[in-house]
């Protein structure tokens, strides 16, 4: 039996890989410990993601539920993210390092490269049966202070990682959101020129 409810499978206008059509960001997670081999594969996929000039600016904090690191990340969450995200097996922080070009000026690509790494991580995780929900609702300065990060390392995203759970375990508002079908803008809204 698939863990992916039919209403969560993307209704695409062109055929795409099943791992992409089925990937979604749940808020309900089981309390199972993380499968370490699957987590390692997701991090390996992130490691092998493309980056400008092979600069590899992506960095990660991997915090397993029950650890001091997990508590630090959970403490930094804002709003309703505090209600659901700590149920995941792992809270993973995506960070990027500031890189300088040949003239000593900051390069423009580290944030883009982190996005590539997070994308690869989430697709590999989904392929292996894990789910990833990325969020920016956290206090970055608090997180940086909690982990005593160097000034040139910036936390940008926190991701809940684990095995998808039941919407019935969420409060009413979050459960309703969890049960909604996935939607996206039409292709002609996002492709600005298509000659």
TrEMBL record:
<keyword id="KW-0560">Oxidoreductase</keyword>
<comment type="similarity">
    <text>Belongs to the nitroreductase family.</text>
</comment>
<feature type="domain" description="Nitroreductase">
    <location>
        <begin position="21"/>
        <end position="88"/>
    </location>
</feature>
<protein>
    <submittedName>
        <fullName>Nitroreductase family protein</fullName>
    </submittedName>
</protein>
<dbReference type="InterPro" id="IPR029479">
    <property type="entry name" value="Nitroreductase"/>
</dbReference>
<dbReference type="InterPro" id="IPR000415">
    <property type="entry name" value="Nitroreductase-like"/>
</dbReference>
<dbReference type="Pfam" id="PF00881">
    <property type="entry name" value="Nitroreductase"/>
</dbReference>
